[in-house]
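for ur thesis appendix - Lytic transglycosylase family protein. copy paste whatever u need, i formatted it the way the template wanted (i think)
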Amino acid sequence: MRHGKFMGMVAALAVMVGGAAAEAAKCSSTGANFERWKQSFAAEAKENGVKPRALAALMDTTYSTATIRADRGQKSFKLSLSAFMAKRGAPAIVSRGRSLKNSNAALFASIEKRYGVPPGPLLAIWGMETGFGNVTGNQHTLSAVATLAYDCRRTEYFTEQLYAALALVDRGTLSASARGAMHGEVGHTQFLPKNVRLYGVDGDGDGRVNLNSKADALASTANFLKGHGWVRGQGYQPGQTNFGAIQGWNAATVYQQAIAIMGKQIDGR
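the 3d part is after this line
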């Protein structure tokens, strides 16, 4: 974005924010009032310390009907475990995962040494989420998160995600034009913005966190699991110590079980 255009957007934003009502931004189940909601939310965000760069990015978002449609249509999590694993291509994930474990042995050894997490569950998550980085999504990230923060279904949860996304834009970790999955997840293992802030790490040593980097994404995923109670050397099947960390990754029971099963098959344990 050219500097002059950016400054013009900031000036226009200041006028809108300054004139916005003091009342809290209100959710809605349709996109009719999204533009009004953005102005109200921007006023709140400015009071909470969000800087002009991120506020301008917020005002550039659009209501995403595709995100709402995806949010309402997550039917695969209601399948049986066997049907879910078949639908997600578990045998192919395990086969490719074993190959990638061997070809990236040094990376996985480094991650396990640092975080205590073996390759299996990381590869299972990587394969399940994006087909090992092949399909990371093309939805405008800020628009997806803003849409879900505006929507009444999970307003509080995605309001936190939106504030996290704006903070990432402020510090340059997330581009205002970033694209990812339908709910605002980004990178090889599909981190929501709040988790990027909490668990994102530099896995390739280039001095920045970029979840579109394989090494950063896998190290960050291991850091997430460690942050959710992963204990080095303990098992991760249902009923074992580290299964709780996998449960922290995704709330769906079939997803949790699938990761544990595929991880074990990849690890050969």
